[in-house]
Amino acid sequence: MKIKSIELIEINLPLVHFFETSFGRTYERRIILTRVRDEAGGEGWGEATCGETPSYSEEWTDAAWAVIERILAPMVIGAEVERAANVWDLMKQVRGNRMAKAAIETACWDLEAKKIGVPLWRHLGGENREIACGVSIGIQDSVEQLLEKIRTELDAGYQRIKIKISPRWDYDVIKRVRETFGDILLMGDANSAYTLADLDKLKSLDEFGLMMLEQPLPHDDIIDHAKLQAQLKTPVCLDEPIKSPEDARKAIELKSGKIINLKNGRVGGHSESKRIEALCRENGMPVWCGGMLESGVGRAHNIAISTLRGYTLPGDVSASKRYWHEDVIEPAVEVTPEGTIIAPDAPGIGFEVNRRRIDKLTVRRAEING
Question: Could you give the residue numbers annotated as active site?
Answer without folding.
Answer: 164, 263
